[in-house]
Amino acid sequence: MSHKKVAILISGGGSNMVSLLESMTGDHPARPCLVLSNNADAGGLKKAAAAGVATAVVDHRPFKGDREAFEAELVKPILEAGADIVCLAGFMRVLTAGFVSQFQGRMLNIHPSLLPKYKGLHTHARALEAGDKEHGCTVHEVTPALDDGPVLGQARVPILPGDTPEDLAQRVLVKEHLLYPAVLRRYAAGDRTPVLID
C-alpha cells in the first residue's frame, strides 16, 4: 500500500507531534516524512530525530517580520520531502493565505477550543471566564482565515468547579493526543467524516 507522506510543523516540545509519529505505524495510511520547526531549540526536533524522522529548521527571526520571505524558505523542505499532508502541531506562526493556498485541502491544525468558539489565544481562560460547562479541542482543515476551515474532529472535556486555565489545558492536552492521530488516520485514507471523542 502506498502511504501518504506527512510533514509536521512545530515550535516547541512537540507533544502532539509525538502522538502523531507514534500513531503512523502498522496499517496506518500515512508515514512521517519531515518534522519542521521555526525554532532550532524546539525540543520536538530531538524527539523526531530519535524516532528516525528527518528534521529541518527555518528560523523566522532573520526575516524581520517579512512573512512572505520566511514562508518562501519554509515551503522548500516541505516540497523537497514530497509531503502529501501538512500537520500543524503547536506551530506558533500565523501563516499567510499565499502559503496556505499551496496546501489547501491538505493541511490540518489542532486548536485548543471547541471551534468556532475561542479562535486565537488564551482559549482555556476565555472558556472559564465565559462560565462554559465544557471545553475541548478541534482538528480542522486550514484555510486562510485563522482557526477556521472545516471541522474534522472534536474532543470534549467537562469544566470542573475550581478549574484553572492550567488544569483545563492539561485535561484538553490528553484529548488532543487522542484526537489528532484519529483524525489524521481517517483523513489520510480520504475520509472527511468528523471524529468525535467525549
Summarize the structure.
The protein is α/β, with parallel strands linked by helices. Helix content is 34%, strand content 23%.
Relevant terms:
Rossmann fold, 8 strands, 198 residues, eight-stranded mixed sheet, alpha/beta, 6 helices, 23% strand, globular
Description:
With 198 residues, the protein is an alpha/beta fold. It folds into 2 domains: 1-103, Formyl transferase, N-terminal domain (Rossmann fold); 109-198, Rossmann fold. The chain is 34% helix and 23% strand. The protein has helices spanning 15-23, 43-50, 67-80, 97-102, 123-129, 165-188, and strands spanning 4-10, 30-37, 55-57, 85-88, 107-111, 134-141, 151-158, 195-197. It has an 8-stranded mixed beta sheet with strand order 3-2-1-4-5-6-7-8, sandwiched between helices. The longest helix has 24 residues, at 165-188. The radius of gyration is 16 Å and the shape is globular. The two termini are 32 Å apart. The mean pLDDT is 97. One of its GO terms (biological process) is 'de novo' IMP biosynthetic process. Pfam families: Formyl_trans_N. Residues 4-184 form the Formyl transferase N-terminal domain. Its EC number is 2.1.2.2. The active site is at 111 (proton donor).
